[in-house]
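Worked example 4.2. Below are the chains of a multi-component assembly; read each line carefully before continuing.
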Amino acid sequence: MQRLKKPWTDHRAELLLGAVSLSTGLIVLFMIAFVTARAWPTFAHNGLSWLAPGGSLKVQVEGMLATSTKPPASAYHVRAWPIIYGTLLITGLAVLLALPLAVLSAVFIVELAPLALRRTMIRVVRLLASVPSVIWGLLGILVLVPFLGNHVITAAERTSLQNTVQLTGAGLIIAVVLLTLMITPIMVALTCDALAAVPGAWREGAAALGVNRLRAIRAVTLRAVRPAIVAATVLATARALGEAIMISMVSGSVFFSPRPSDGVAFLFEPVRTLASTIVDFREGLGGAPALNSTLYAFALLLLFSVFVLSLAGYLVKLPLRKYQVRG
Amino acid sequence: MNKLEYAPSAPTQGTKPRTNGPRIHTAHADDSPESPPVLRAAPDPQAVPPVRTIVLDRPPEPVRPPAQREAVRRALDADGPERLRLEDVSVAYSSKTAVRSVSLSIHQGEVLALIGPSGCGKTTLLRTLNRLTELTPSATRSGRIVLDGHDIHDLEDTALRARVAMVFQQPNPFPMSIFDNVAFALREQSRRRPRRPELEPLVVDALRRAGLYDEVKDDLHRPALRLSGGQQQRLCIARAIAPRPEVLLMDEPCSALDPISTGVIEELIHELRRELAVVIVTHNLAQAQRVADKVAFMYLGDLVEYGPAQQVFEEPRAPRTRDYVRGAFG
Amino acid sequence: MSAQGGLSVAAAPRRGRGSSMRTWRWSDRLVWLAAWGAGLLLCAVAAAIVIYMGYRGVQYLRPSLLFSHPQPSGNQAGSGGFLDPLIGTALLTVIGIVLAAPLAICSALWIVEYGHGGRVRQYLTRIVESSIEIVAGTPDILIAVFGVAIFQLHFLRFASEGSEGGGVTGRSFLAAGAMMSLIALPPMFIATRDGLQAVPTHMREAAFALGKTRIATIRRVLLPSVRPNIATGVTLGISRIIADTAIVLVLLGDELRLSPHHGGLPVFNLLRGAGSSLTSYVYDNSPAGEGAAPQKAYAAAVVLLLFVLLLNLAVESIARRQSRSGGSLAIGGFV
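Applying the procedure described above to all three chains together yields the following structure tokens:
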């Protein structure tokens, strides 16, 4: 039987559309390839100990600013652990705070709020989700940092650390709080959609078993949306990892690893993350090879961790599937 | 047609007609020679086709042999204590009356079937008995419903539903394991959370009473959603009866199931009525005949007839009942 | 059986006694309280932001700022307004949307119309969808870094200026706009794809039955019917572009005013040049940038926030016009 021929306009259109669509895939490939290529010299010179602590990152990076177009091998020496630690610390704390806040808010919006309040809450969440990061940073640096610096940090804390670092108020706690507020709306939106999609049959069944409302929510509904909560957490963590502008504005712009052993002052110590370092040293992109390659290496590490995060989210959702409805 | 197909051929006085569904021929070894012949491979086109029989690959297993069932049933002919009483109950959904002035009495040890055509208000009436209609904001209710002497309006809704359980039309097991499903009410209704060793015997007992234990006992921690439809419905029944309610409400429990599962569940209802009062809504008249002790026929919100099953089906008083039961409308 | 008596049904009480919270477990009461607290906390934060920005806006925002050029100056009174940053934001938005729209619409069309049937096609569909997901999940700073890597290549020197030493700066409106298109791509793609998937099959079948080719169907039937979805996607894309700062800081050079390239075509000169956007203006005028001009930073930030809120309202109104029932719980489109 002869294959039906498509009209040639259709065939051409299909090829054109297909080519355009696949170009996105090409862009992604190029992105990975270019960043890896530019970052390669750093890894070649430092090996895996690039990730380890060692020496002062401040000295290393700022030393690179002065290098020329053909730097000696020693100029590539960098140990990035302080900012890796900063990234993990800030992201971890923010997600830890955002998760309960988001789940509770979502439960409130979908289950507990009266109808008029629910509509307002949806608008509130949309508003918070669309505030640009530079405005979060602006409010942080112009309102929160002076407040902390003038009214909260005590002179005793300042003197105890005066030989290591200067406490200006711009530091860990403000970055974490603002980052939490930035990623919560994403999680709330996804969780709300999932809660609203829980089949009414389960709610009715739980009600008919004489279980009070909150128990029904905790025991049935929240269990049913566990995969959605995982997906929301992955998305929020990826967003937190990549946040550069706000952190660069409020976290003190000093290469320092906050030490929990300092007690309360730990919260006020400045910190830098991978993303905020790239923003702070952005003129070095395309400039001297040593700094250029180092910055690309930071970017590659960020890209890698976002991939790993998506994979981890997929893996965590797998065992949850067996209790859900098939298909 | 003036006689329902599934009515038994010779109803005798004193025993309620009870068959287990359509005549099903199973491939037992002890077939009597008079049983109808199995369909032959190449029938003679001129001959009258023989009576077709359905051959099952697995015989249905009754909960107990027929002789014992009769004995149990005869012992229960006296009514148990009154559990639920409805006095002049009306239900409306924002000015549209769904149920109008219904008065009934429900006793332990008997099965009350609510029958009637679609839209007659029987499901609404059922859902009013455990105040599930309150989940709909526009529903209003008047009249009194008394559970063991207490007006249900004054009981807390969670306390009421702990005593009046419900099974729905579509099986709705929670997305958890079988054990967690059955233990759900036991865990969540109490103030103090019971521990696993306390729960296990209760769960096993509920599964046994629901006739599901033998099929799932090898792994109680399997996800409940992997069970078949009939098994899921029995799981829902086990879940509902685990906290030992006084009344069991069933909203067309078999309408989504195949005939074999239906038969199994009807058998189950027959067993359960010893300890509970059962109210079952069904649009299947044959099922009502098989299962019910008392029947209430509703039409467009009114209770048209209420009485013992045999009387309603064979000597209905109201002409409308007679028409419905004989299949004149549905 | 129908005795009259008792209340009429319409006047009857609606609910019986609910379960009082006194019978709840302590952990339930705590969770209930915490849920209310969380919801009200989010409300409070949003209200605080809006009120505070409003207060600062009334304090510092003057219409003259919108129309005067920025001057490099030590004190705030002389530092001019932010006309150039506004133009910069508009330019970036136009470039970004113009580049992203064909990509998004073509990809969505291909996936929905041609993406089924045959294992090769499904494989390709998966590639396209995964790529767009990856782009959606990539932080904007990474996209900026990638942009620099690309546009500093020698063969792309037409897109930006040359720098000393014979290299390419890789920083211009074109470069930044191209990367902005990657930012705007995912929302436009998702909105268009969802709209196309929602078109019922019988519309396509009716067009085919009338003898139209697939491409004609797309042009005449499908695309017009998903216009609101495309509009939603474009609006979401615009709001993401104007809110983005990292790409601007990295890829737009460090000029306060528009500084076009010299020599060559006029419009193209503008695109090849450097400048600033509203977001980079806010950043530069805050203590994080060079500037000690917090008043200007506040003023620009208020303008930015107003734009974002207006775009939000636009999306909401498109969505409401589409589904007359309104009040759906879907917040998801905004993230």
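Take a moment to check your reading of the output against the notes. Residues 26-60 of chain C form the longest helix (35 residues). The mean pLDDT of chain C is 82.
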